[in-house]
């Protein structure tokens, strides 16, 4: 194989897989010229998305979301706690995002992923500032008892667009969440009611109820490269073309977050408008998928 | 459409800016930046030999360590480190010193709103002080969308109290404005000048899409003023000869 010239000369001699590893940027640019990506997706299309509710039977609410190969498992456990002094009639949500070594070869037990605390913080900010959950709904007895919801999201396979999949899994888990029935026992503490219904204790809330969701946030990550905008990148695309923009819109088209952490490509107004338009389309797709998943559960 | 701000500033008025370079003698570059009561100290060490395990050895690597004023390092600090690292990577010329690491340390001295923008501005000045090669400077500004229900009401450089009260705020980073010696002026991309492009944008809270674009306009206008301030500041103090090595 002749080496001194640019890869253009090698492209006819080298195998496709070798070319992809040796000259990743040129490999992708050859595809972008034809407005297509190596996995045969057009530039503006996201990967196949599926949601399965109730994946974790022991949790109060759970969901498994897959965007292409990226898989996220979200589970919510509820616990009763005393509300804080400043907000006596509001509950609390604690959001945590884990990237166990199963998700990617670069994550090892002694080397936690750099992306994990960043995605956890982004998720926390997005869910709490979007107004999806009204914390007052999580209150039980004003000033004495309120629900604390622990939302844990585990990444099972990290193949790009981690924040999108994690947000989708979190939203699906909240839509599946059922608040359990509790009652006051003799010591004045709140305990979970038995299924058989011990009638000497008056239940504090009559029946398992679902949480009312306000406007639900959905997100889309796009990569900017020269004049191209690629939606829903895989891990390979993210590592080669480093400039990404994540737009989060809620169901009433309000901008919850526009996140562009640096990157060599500058985003001009036209690029941002295109990203927001692509996100609007994606919001409609995701709303349909979520509604189908919820109605599928209710039939059961 | 006037809004009363507690310190009596107008909508588009920034707090008093102060910047000094070369304040730490052992660091290769250092700067302190304050906007009103928010004060951040930045120190740069580097380039040092070698890169970390997962980084590309064909390019220079930038490492950021963020120290809060009080408390332990948590997710907020890690997020700020990542945003700062990626912003600085996009303005530095990474191919000049391959297989090296430049460390940027940020120490928060006081936080009164617009903390991330101050840190980015301080880090840029410290990099200039250390003589790290850069394409252009990053100029950072914070904008806040007021809750008053009148859309399009954007105030610049909010204090911490204003950030907490208002509906939403955005931290924006632009490249600095270009004074070109070429007769045709500075280069433009797609008809827009280079300084209109966004390097970084971090928003918090829900706002409408039009409010965001309005924030961008105001941010660009303010970044021109900030660029002039930086230019004057850098021209006054000559950089000392390199202390690296």
UniProtKB/TrEMBL annotation, chain A:
<dbReference type="InterPro" id="IPR001247">
    <property type="entry name" value="ExoRNase_PH_dom1"/>
</dbReference>
<feature type="domain" description="Exoribonuclease phosphorolytic">
    <location>
        <begin position="46"/>
        <end position="180"/>
    </location>
</feature>
<dbReference type="InterPro" id="IPR050590">
    <property type="entry name" value="Exosome_comp_Rrp42_subfam"/>
</dbReference>
<dbReference type="InterPro" id="IPR036345">
    <property type="entry name" value="ExoRNase_PH_dom2_sf"/>
</dbReference>
<keyword id="KW-0694">RNA-binding</keyword>
<dbReference type="InterPro" id="IPR033196">
    <property type="entry name" value="Rrp43"/>
</dbReference>
<keyword id="KW-0271">Exosome</keyword>
<dbReference type="Pfam" id="PF01138">
    <property type="entry name" value="RNase_PH"/>
</dbReference>
<keyword id="KW-0698">rRNA processing</keyword>
<dbReference type="InterPro" id="IPR020568">
    <property type="entry name" value="Ribosomal_Su5_D2-typ_SF"/>
</dbReference>
<keyword id="KW-0539">Nucleus</keyword>
<keyword id="KW-0963">Cytoplasm</keyword>
<dbReference type="InterPro" id="IPR027408">
    <property type="entry name" value="PNPase/RNase_PH_dom_sf"/>
</dbReference>
<comment type="similarity">
    <text>Belongs to the RNase PH family.</text>
</comment>
<protein>
    <recommendedName>
        <fullName>Ribosomal RNA-processing protein 43</fullName>
    </recommendedName>
</protein>
<dbReference type="Pfam" id="PF03725">
    <property type="entry name" value="RNase_PH_C"/>
</dbReference>
<dbReference type="InterPro" id="IPR015847">
    <property type="entry name" value="ExoRNase_PH_dom2"/>
</dbReference>
<feature type="domain" description="Exoribonuclease phosphorolytic">
    <location>
        <begin position="216"/>
        <end position="278"/>
    </location>
</feature>
Automatic annotation (TrEMBL), chain B:
<comment type="similarity">
    <text>Belongs to the RNase PH family.</text>
</comment>
<dbReference type="InterPro" id="IPR036345">
    <property type="entry name" value="ExoRNase_PH_dom2_sf"/>
</dbReference>
<dbReference type="InterPro" id="IPR027408">
    <property type="entry name" value="PNPase/RNase_PH_dom_sf"/>
</dbReference>
<keyword id="KW-0271">Exosome</keyword>
<dbReference type="Pfam" id="PF01138">
    <property type="entry name" value="RNase_PH"/>
</dbReference>
<feature type="domain" description="Exoribonuclease phosphorolytic">
    <location>
        <begin position="13"/>
        <end position="133"/>
    </location>
</feature>
<keyword id="KW-0698">rRNA processing</keyword>
<dbReference type="InterPro" id="IPR020568">
    <property type="entry name" value="Ribosomal_Su5_D2-typ_SF"/>
</dbReference>
<protein>
    <recommendedName>
        <fullName>Exoribonuclease phosphorolytic domain-containing protein</fullName>
    </recommendedName>
</protein>
<dbReference type="InterPro" id="IPR001247">
    <property type="entry name" value="ExoRNase_PH_dom1"/>
</dbReference>
<dbReference type="InterPro" id="IPR050080">
    <property type="entry name" value="RNase_PH"/>
</dbReference>
<keyword id="KW-0539">Nucleus</keyword>
């Amino acid at each position: 194989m002749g080496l001194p010239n640019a890869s253009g000369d090698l492209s006819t001699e080298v195998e496709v897989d070798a070319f992809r590893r040796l000259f990743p940027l040129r490999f992708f640019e050859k595809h972008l010229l034809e407005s297509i990506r190596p996995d045969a997706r057009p530039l503006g299309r996201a990967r196949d998305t599926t949601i399965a509710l109730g994946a974790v039977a022991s949790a109060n609410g759970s969901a498994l979301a897959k965007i292409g190969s990226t898989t996220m498992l979200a589970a919510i456990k509820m616990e009763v706690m005393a509300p804080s002094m400043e907000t006596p009639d509001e509950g609390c949500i604690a959001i945590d995002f884990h990237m166990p070594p199963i998700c990617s070869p670069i994550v090892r037990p002694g080397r936690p992923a750099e992306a994990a605390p960043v995605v956890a913080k982004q998720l926390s900010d997005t869910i709490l500032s979007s107004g999806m959950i009204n914390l007052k709904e999580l209150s039980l007895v004003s000033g004495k008892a309120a629900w604390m919801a622990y939302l844990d999201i585990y990444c099972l396979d990290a193949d790009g667009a981690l924040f999108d999949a994690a947000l989708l899994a979190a939203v699906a888990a909240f839509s599946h969440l059922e608040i359990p029935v509790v009652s006051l026992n003799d010591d004045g503490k709140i305990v979970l009611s038995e299924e058989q219904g011990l009638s000497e204790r008056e239940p504090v809330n009559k029946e398992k109820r679902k949480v009312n969701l306000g406007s639900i946030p959905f997100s889309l990550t796009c990569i900017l490269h020269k004049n191209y905008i690629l939606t829903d990148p895989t891990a390979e695309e993210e590592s080669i073309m480093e400039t990404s923009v994540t737009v989060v819109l809620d169901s009433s088209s309000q901008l919850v977050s526009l996140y562009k952490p640096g990157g060599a490509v500058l985003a001009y107004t036209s690029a941002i408008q295109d990203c927001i338009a692509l996100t609007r389309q994606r919001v409609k797709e995701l709303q349909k998928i979520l509604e189908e998943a919820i109605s599928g559960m209710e039939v059961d | 459409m006037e809004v009363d701000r507690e310190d009596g500033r107008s909508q588009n008025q920034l707090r008093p800016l102060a910047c000094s370079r070369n304040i730490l003698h052992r660091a290769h570059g250092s700067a302190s930046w304050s906007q009103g009561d928010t004060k951040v100290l930045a120190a740069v060490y580097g380039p040092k030999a070698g890169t970390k395990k997962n980084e590309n050895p064909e390019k220079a690597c930038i490492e950021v360590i963020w120290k809060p004023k009080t408390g332990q390092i948590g997710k907020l600090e890690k997020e700020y480190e990542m945003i700062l690292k990626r912003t600085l990577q996009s303005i530095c010329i990474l191919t000049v010193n391959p297989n090296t690491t430049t460390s940027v340390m940020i120490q928060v001295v006081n936080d009164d709103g617009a903390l991330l923008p101050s840190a980015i501005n301080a880090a840029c000045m410290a990099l200039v002080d250390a003589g790290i090669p850069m394409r252009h400077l990053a100029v950072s500004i914070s904008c806040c969308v007021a809750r008053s229900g009148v859309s399009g009401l954007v105030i610049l450089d909010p204090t911490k109290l204003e950030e907490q009260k208002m509906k939403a705020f955005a931290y924006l980073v632009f490249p600095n404005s270009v004074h070109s010696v070429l007769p045709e002026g500075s280069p433009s991309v797609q008809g827009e000048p280079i300084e209109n492009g966004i390097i970084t944008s971090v928003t918090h809270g829900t706002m409408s899409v039009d409010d965001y674009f309005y924030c961008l306009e105001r941010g660009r206008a303010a970044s021109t003023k900030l660029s002039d301030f930086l230019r004057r500041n850098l021209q006054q103090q000559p950089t000392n000869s390199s202390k690296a090595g």
